[in-house]
Amino acid sequence: MYKVLHFIKRKPHMTHEEFKAHFERSHAAMALKFCGHLFTEYRRNYIEEAWFGGDSRQEGSGYRQQDANWDLISEWILPNEAALHEIYRIMQEPDKDHLFREDEDRFIDRTATMTIACEVKDIGTTFKPEGTVFDTPDGKPRWD
Fold first, then answer.
1. What gap in Å lies between CA 95 and CA 112, rounded to an integer?
2. pLDDT for residue 74 is more than 80
3. Average model confidence (pLDDT) for the chain?
């Protein structure tokens, strides 16, 4: 499994709700129309609140709710890296490239966009101590 995260910020003339509505109505629709067959999953995580700025365990450290740097974290979950390259190829076809570019110019602050490719490790939700710090005779964690 291969995952790409896109951290996306709206242009200042839009509200978060306007950004969200436009993304769903236009940008996500285009992605699904032209590339949906390559996605295993396609998630849009709209940021509602963000907490940062210090150590959350220390009172007075500056950790507090603040405006997030992005409005959306878009997840593309793909079977492999080859699917990502195929998506980029499709999006750059002349009949589609201008659609994506013109739409992004309407509402996305491209200077703030960050894209991160990730290798996904998923061990499920059942605890298995083998190979972890809890893989000890007494089941207590050990970091040595």
1. 26
2. yes
3. 94
Residues 116, 121, 126: CA angle, nearest 5 degrees: 140
* Mean pLDDT computed over 117-123: 83
Task: Give the torsion through C-alpha atoms of 84, 78, 10, 113, to 10 deg.
Answer: -50
Confidence bin at 42 (pLDDT 50/70/90):
very high
Question: What single-letter amino acid sits at 49?
Answer: E
Q: What is the 3-state secondary structure (H, E, C) of the chain?
A: CEEEEEEECECCCCCHHHHHHHHHHHHHHHHHHHHHHHCCEEEEEECCCEEECCCCCCCCCCCEEECCCCCEEEEEEECCHHHHHHHHHHHCCHHHHHHHHHHHHHHECHHHCEEEEEECCCCCCCCCCCCCCCCCCCCCCCCC
CA of residue 118 relative to chain centroid, distance: 10
